[in-house]
Amino acid sequence: MSPDISLSNAEAVNETRRQHEYIEKAKGYVKKLSEELGRPLSFCVTTFGCQMNARDSEKLAGILEQIGYVEEADEKKADFVIYNTCTVRENANLRVYGRLGQLNRIKRENPHMMIALCGCMMQEPDVVEKIRKSYRFVDIVFGTHNIFKFAELIVSRFESGSMVVDIWKDTDQIVEDLPIERKYPFKSGVNIMFGCNNFCSYCIVPYVRGRERSREPQAIIDEIKNLVADGVVEVMLLGQNVNSYGKTLDNPMTFAELLREIEKIEGLERIRFMTSHPKDLSDELIEVMRTSKKICRHLHLPVQSGSSRILEKMNRRYTKEKYLELVEKIRKAVPDISLTTDIIVGFPGETEEDFEETLDVVRKVRYDSAFTFIYSKRTGTPAAAMVNQVPEDVVKNRFDRLLKEVQEISAEVCSVHEGSTQTVLVETINDHDSSLVTGRMSNNLLVHFPGGDSLIGKLVDVKLEECKGFYYLGRMV
User: Fold this and answer.
1) pLDDT of 153 over the 60 cut
2) Cβ-proximal residues to 235 (8 Å cutoff; 6+ apart), any chain
3) According to the model, what pLDDT value does residue 106 have?
4) What is the pLDDT of residue 87?
5) I need a surface site. Which of 181, 316, 334, 470 has the fewest CB within 10 A?
6) Is 83 helix (H, G, I), strand (E, B) or coil?
7) b/e 78-96 (16+ beta carbons within 10 angstroms → b)
8) What is the pLDDT of residues 297-332, one digit of tens each?
9) Cα(370)–Cα(121) distance, rounded to whole angstroms?
C-alpha cells in the first residue's frame, strides 16, 4: 500500500482487519521461536520524548503482548527491544545511537534478539541512511505514520530474515481498534489528532509528524467510553495543538465542543489535555474550562520566549502582550488554574534585552512550573540556517538564571495550597517509602501520604500538611 493513497473510513476498517490477520500470523512465528528456546519471549519498549510517543508505545506493547511476548523491564534481557524515538533536540538522537551500540554487543550473544526503531527520529532520511549503513544489526525501522503496521513489519522480518524499513512521508489515514497495553489501568492518553500545521521556525515536528488530521469525534467518544468501562477515571487528550482540533473534519467541530461532549461521559472523573498553542486558545474554550466539573485545573501554555521580536522569528504568531492578555483572561475565568509552560533559551539572535523580556513574563505570570530548554539546532528547520547563533557560554548563563527564577517562583506559587484539602488521584506506591502512596491533584501537583496499594486508581481527599517546593506531604481525611 503506497503512503500516498488516501483511505476512506471503509478502507481504514479493512486495514484494521488486515492488521489483525498479521497479528495472528505473527503469533505463529513467536510461538515457534519460543518453543525452540524453551521459554516465553520477552520485550522491552523504551520511549523517548512526548506523551504522544508514550501513547504510541502503549500500542506497540499491546501488539507485542497480543502476539505472545511478555514484558521485561531490563532491555539487556529482552528478546525484542524497541526504541520509540524523539528528535525535538539533538541529544535525543545521540542517546539513541549510544544505546544502539550497547545493544549490538548483546545481540551478538543472542542472535535471535530483535531490535526495532520507530518514532520521530526515523522520519529523518539521513537518520534512516545512517541506520542502514552503520547499524545493520537493527531488524525493523518505521516512522510515526504507520505504527499500526507493527505486526505486519514483524511478520516481514521473520519471513525475510533481513532488515525491514518502512517509512511513510505523510498520511491522512487513522487506523483504530488495535491492541493497547496501558501503563496505568485508571488513566489513559487518548489521541484526538495527529500532526501539526504551525511550522514554528525551530521545530522539526511538522516535518516528522505530518499535517494536522483530526479523529472523528464519535471515535474519540467511543474510545473514552470503552476506557471508562475498563476502569479509567482520567483521560489526557493528546495533540500537537489540541486548540486547532476539528478543522480537518468533514463536519468541523471546535475543541471546546468536543470537550463538552466528553464531559457528558458517565464514570469519567477527570479530563486533561495538551498541548495548547496560545494563538488558538479561544474564549469558547476558556468558558468551557470555567464551567466544567471534570476538566482539571491545569493548563500547559507554552510561551517559548517573552520577547515579541523573538516570537516573530520563531513564527509563534502572538506577541508578549497578547500572551499576557490571554493569561489574564484565563486567570479571571478560572482563578485556581495552575499554569505551566515551555521556554527556549538562546534562540538565534536572542539579545540580553530579549532574555530580560522572558524573565519579565516569568515574573508576571508566576508559573507553577516551566520546562526550560537550551535551543537545539535541528537540520531542516528555518532557525537552523539563521545567523547570530548565540554563544554557548552566554546561553548557559541565561539558562541558569532562568532556572533559578522559575524555581523560586514555583516554590512560592505551589505553597499556597498548604493546609487545604484537595481531591487526589492515587497513582502508585511511593518510590522512596513504601508506607506512602503518591497521587496527583487536579492542578497536576504531586502529593505523598500514608496509604496502601488498595488506594491506587482511587480519588481520595487529602489534607496538604507540608509543601516541599514541588510536591506536598499530606494525610487522607
Assistant:
1) yes
2) 187, 188, 189, 190, 224, 227, 262, 268, 270, 271, 272
3) 94
4) 84
5) 470
6) strand
7) bbbbbbbbbbbbeebbebb
8) 999 999 999 999 999 999 999 999 999 999 999 999
9) 25
